[in-house]
C-alpha cells in the first residue's frame, strides 16, 4: 500500500459539476437496451463486480447466441453485450432476458438500472482495513427491496472503499470509507462524515439515497443538488492513493492465491471466458471479480491456474496492454469518425502504451470511457489523429506512421 495521500479535494476534482439536466438519463440495461450502429447495446449490472463462473459462462453463451460473441467490461465493473437484435418495441429477445435472469443477474427487474455499486475488488482477501463483502451484499439486497429506490437515476453510483483509497476517488454519489474493521465514514459527493459503525452503513446509505430522491428534481447526481450538503463534512480523511491494480499473482490473507488479470481492450472472447471460468471452478471458489479498471480477479486459488494466460489474458505487470484503452469507435458507434480498437492494438504492438500516463483512443469529442486521471488522448479521425495531453501540452496532429512516436514524445514532454 502506498503511503502517499490524497486529500478529498482530489476526490471532488474528479466529479465536475454538470449543467442543469433537461432530460432523464438513458443508461442502458437488459430491459432498456441502447440502439447503436451495430445493433443494441445491453449492460448487465453486477454489484461490486462479483460474478460466479457459471453466470459469466452463461453471459458469454448469450453473447454468442444473440450478440457479437464478446463480453465487454465497463469502468463500473459491469458487463456489456453488443450487436443484440431488438424487436419493433426496442426490446431484446425474451429468451435472452430469461437466461440472464436465470443466471441470477436480474434479481429485480425494477431495480436493474440502479444496482450501481463499486467496491474495493480485493476487499477481505488482500489488504484493506475491513472486509466490505457483507456490506456489498446487504446494500444490494436492501436496495432491491425498496420500491422507492427503484427511482434512483441510472448513473447514480455507490462506492464502497475498504480504506485503501481505490474506489472512493471514482466519481461517486454515496459511499463509505473504512476507518478500521468496525467503523466507516460515509461519503456524499466528496464530503466525508464522522465515523459510524460498519453494521449501520447500508441503512445510512439508503437513508441518504432517499434524501437525494426527495430533493433531486431533475438532478442525476448528489453533487448537482442545490442547498445544504447531504452530510456534514467531518474533515479530510487523508485518503491513501490506492489506484488501479497491477496485473500478476497475489497471496490472500487466508494463504490462497489470486490472479489479477488484464483484459486487452476490456473485451473477453468466448474462449477467454471459458478459460477463467474453468480455472475458477477447478482451482478456486467458482467466483470472479470484475474491477473498475476493466480487469478481472480470479481469487481463492488452491493451486496456480495457467488457463487464463494461455487464453491471452495478461499477468505481466509490464504488458503494453496495461495502460491503453479505447472507446467503441466505428463500426459500432454511430458517432464514430473512425475505428479506435485497431489504433489501440497498433500502439500496444509498438510497446509505447506500457508506461504512464495511459493512452485512451476515441473517435469523437464525447470521449467515452476516458480514464478519470491524467492520460494522453488520441482522437482518431478519417484522415489522421490528434494527440492531446497530458495537461498543459499543445495538441499535435499526425498520421498513423508517426502516431507511436508522437505519443511517446507527449509522454516524455519532449
Ligand atoms: S467517444 Fe464518440 S466515437 Fe467513441 S464510443 Fe463515444 S460517442 Fe462513439
From TrEMBL:
InterPro entries: NIR_SIR_4Fe-4S, NiRdtase/SiRdtase_haem-b_fer, Nit/Sulf_reduc_fer-like_dom_sf, NO2/SO3_Rdtase_4Fe4S_sf
Alphabetized SUPFAM superfamilies for the sequence: Nitrite and sulphite reductase 4Fe-4S domain-like (SSF56014), Nitrite/Sulfite reductase N-terminal domain-like (SSF55124)
Molecular function GO terms recorded: 4 iron, 4 sulfur cluster binding; metal ion binding; oxidoreductase activity
Keyword line: 4Fe-4S, Heme, Iron, Iron-sulfur, Metal-binding, Oxidoreductase
Span of domain Nitrite/Sulfite reductase ferredoxin-like: 36-88, 258-313
Region (Disordered): 1-28
Position of the signal peptide: none
Domain of life, per lineage: Bacteria
PANTHER family linked: BLR3264 PROTEIN (PTHR32439:SF9), FERREDOXIN--NITRITE REDUCTASE, CHLOROPLASTIC (PTHR32439)
Protein's name according to its UniProt entry: Precorrin-3B synthase
Amino acid at each position: 500500500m502506498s503511503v502517499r495521500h490524497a486529500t478529498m479535494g482530489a476526490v471532488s476534482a474528479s466529479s465536475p459539476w454538470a449543467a442543469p439536466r433537461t432530460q432523464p438519463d438513458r443508461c442502458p440495461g437488459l430491459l432498456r437496451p441502447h440502439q447503436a450502429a451495430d445493433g443494441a447495446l445491453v449492460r448487465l449490472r453486477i454489484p461490486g463486480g462479483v460474478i460466479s463462473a457459471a453466470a459469466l459462462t452463461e453471459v458469454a453463451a448469450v453473447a454468442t447466441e444473440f450478440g457479437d460473441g464478446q463480453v465487454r467490461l465497463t469502468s463500473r465493473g459491469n458487463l456489456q453485450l453488443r450487436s443484440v437484435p431488438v424487436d419493433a418495441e426496442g426490446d431484446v429477445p425474451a429468451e435472452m432476458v430469461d437466461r440472464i435472469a436465470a443466471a441470477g443477474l436480474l434479481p429485480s427487474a425494477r431495480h436493474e438500472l440502479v444496482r450501481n455499486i463499486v467496491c474495493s475488488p480485493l476487499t477481505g482477501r488482500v489488504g484493506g482495513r475491513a472486509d466490505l463483502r457483507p456490506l456489498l451484499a446487504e446494500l444490494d439486497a436492501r436496495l432491491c427491496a425498496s420500491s422507492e429506490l427503484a427511482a434512483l437515476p441510472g448513473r447514480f453510483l455507490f462506492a464502497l472503499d475498504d480504506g485503501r483509497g481505490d474506489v472512493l476517488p471514482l466519481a461517486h454519489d454515496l459511499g463509505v470509507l473504512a476507518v478500521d474493521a468496525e467503523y466507516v465514514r460515509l461519503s456524499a459527493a466528496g464530503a466525508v462524515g464522522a465515523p459510524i459503525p460498519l453494521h449501520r452503513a447500508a441503512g445510512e446509505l439508503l437513508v441518504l439515497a432517499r434524501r437525494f430522491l426527495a430533493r433531486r428534481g431533475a438532478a442525476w447526481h448528489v453533487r448537482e443538488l442545490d442547498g445544504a450538503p447531504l452530510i456534514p463534512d467531518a474533515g479530510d480523511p487523508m485518503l491513501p492513493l490506492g489506484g488501479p491494480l497491477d496485473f500478476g499473482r497475489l497471496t490472500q490473507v487466508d494463504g490462497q492465491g489470486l490472479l489479477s488479470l488484464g483484459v486487452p481492450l476490456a473485451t473477453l472472447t468466448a474462449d477467454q471466458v471459458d478459460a477463467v471460468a474453468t480455472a475458477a471452478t477447478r482451482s478456486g471458489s467458482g467466483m470472479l471479480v470484475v474491477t473498475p479498471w476493466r480487469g478481472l480477479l480470479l481469487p481463492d486459488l488452491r493451486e496456480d491456474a495457467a488457463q487464463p494466460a494461455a487464453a491471452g489474458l495478461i499477468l505481466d505487470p509490464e504488458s503494453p496492454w496495461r495502460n491503453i484503452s479505447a472507446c467503441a469507435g466505428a463500426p459500432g458507434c454511430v458517432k464514430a469518425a473512425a475505428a479506435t480498437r485497431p489504433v489501440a492494438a497498433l500502439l500496444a504492438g509498438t510497446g509505447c502504451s506500457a508506461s504512464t500516463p495511459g493512452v485512451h483512443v476515441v473517435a469523437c469529442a464525447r470521449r467515452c470511457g476516458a480514464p478519470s486521471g491524467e492520460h494522453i488522448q488520441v482522437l482518431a479521425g478519417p484522415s489522421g489523429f490528434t494527440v492531446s495531453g497530458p495537461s498543459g501540452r499543445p495538441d499535435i496532429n499526425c498520421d498513423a506512421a508517426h502516431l507511436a512516436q508522437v505519443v511517446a514524445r507527449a509522454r516524455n514532454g519532449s
